[in-house]
Amino acid sequence: MRMVDIIAKKRDGHDLTTEEIQFLVTGYTDGSIPDYQMSAWAMAVLLRGMTPRETGDLTLAMAASGEQLDLSSLPGIKVDKHSTGGVGDKTTLVVAPLVAAAGIPVAKMSGRGLGYSGGTIDKLESFSGFQVERSREQFLRQVQEIGVSVIGQSGNLTPADKKLYALRDVTATVEAVPLIASSIMSKKIAAGADAILLDVKVGSGAFMKTLEQAETLATAMVQIGKQVGRKTVAVISDMDQPLGYAVGNALEVQEAIETLAGRGPRDLTELALSIGAHMLVLGELVTDVEEGRARLEEIIRTGQAVEKLAQMVEAQGGSREDVYDPSRLPSASLSLEIKAAQDGYIAAIDAETVGHASVLLGAGRLTKEMPIDLAVGIVLAKKRGEKVRAGEVLATIYANDDHLLQQAARELAGAYTYSAEAAMDQPLIYKTIV
Ligand code: URA
């Protein structure tokens, strides 16, 4: 087999065989296929597309390109969750303990934030002493004992995807839907998922800016799931404004704890319950989402959800007291209130701009190596659709540097659009694709 023939075949719009796809993934991983040939192939895929069968083959080949986590020692169906990322998206911090308390084993690997998208692992490090690096044995033992562990991505998982993603970034081929879909799904499969719940974000603070794009990606990933025998459900959820009120690591942890205690923002609570209910169905603990939701509401009401987070924090080296008394979490030395410039309704709070303002404060990083400040961030006081008077507080900025605070304040003020009349309510969940 020759890579040049595979490139030409895709260039001319033909389908590649399973063997051809395995050949190119193996060759690219071991270095026998160079970047320039892989770039040409990726561009041919961008222009010509791939069938669901080809996309499924690519996903499995990339999942098999490195280490694969064996979760078979854990009981039941292992349901993983993935978010395509957004501003203020602390859903995993809520959903992981919540569904674990219901009986779904959660052995989850999560990422760090990059750009204006936050990462679960950074947020968890707000708990002093919390260990995100665990050996495989510690990770599995913890899930056996308390039902949940969330750790950083470790080991040599999906090396083919790591190389290909970096290559796509510099060859204008990131946008190819079969490549995005297989990239995400291969990582979930290598991490041991039997079933997968995808939260595909759409809006200004998301990777997918339009509903059509989000739907195309969600459908491609659900199709891969079908193709490779992993039940997959995708919800398409709003990321035009931040999720919840808090943006920034320790601030988001506090909000997640409030949500687990039943006092969270309406949108975050609703999204966590919806996602969690789908995960209970995928895990075959309940037969429908209504039953799943009722079970999760009961778990929140009885305090089991917060307690499960406390158990996880303690098992990973943190203090359970931080969960029951979040005032112990890192806090910033400076704060500033941002006030409404005029009377009216808040027509939009641009999530991307809020994300940029929080990165300016130090809550996020622009390069993988950058350190972050866990204490800083933004807490909104109002959300889209609310009525405000000029001078009313829209948000509070928390910072550790006055210069950055002023810069972030200018940036944040530009996130707001006003209207004279209340705008139509935008849905939180646009669609569920099964
Ligand atoms: N996220 C991924 O993991 N892969 C992509 O290709 C795009 C977004």
Automatic annotation (TrEMBL):
Instruction: Give the source's domain of life in one word.
Output: Bacteria
GO BP: any one term: pyrimidine nucleoside metabolic process
Q: Per the record, what are the reactions this protein catalyses?
A: uridine + phosphate = alpha-D-ribose 1-phosphate + uracil; thymidine + phosphate = 2-deoxy-alpha-D-ribose 1-phosphate + thymine; 2'-deoxyuridine + phosphate = 2-deoxy-alpha-D-ribose 1-phosphate + uracil
Does the keyword field hold Transferase?
A: yes
**Cofactors (names):** K(+)
- Any GO CC annotation of this UniProt entry: cytosol
Keywords recorded for this protein, A-Z = Glycosyltransferase, Metal-binding, Potassium, Transferase
> How does this protein assemble?
Homodimer.
Q: What is this protein called?
A: Pyrimidine-nucleoside phosphorylase
Q: Which organism is it from?
A: Brevibacillus composti
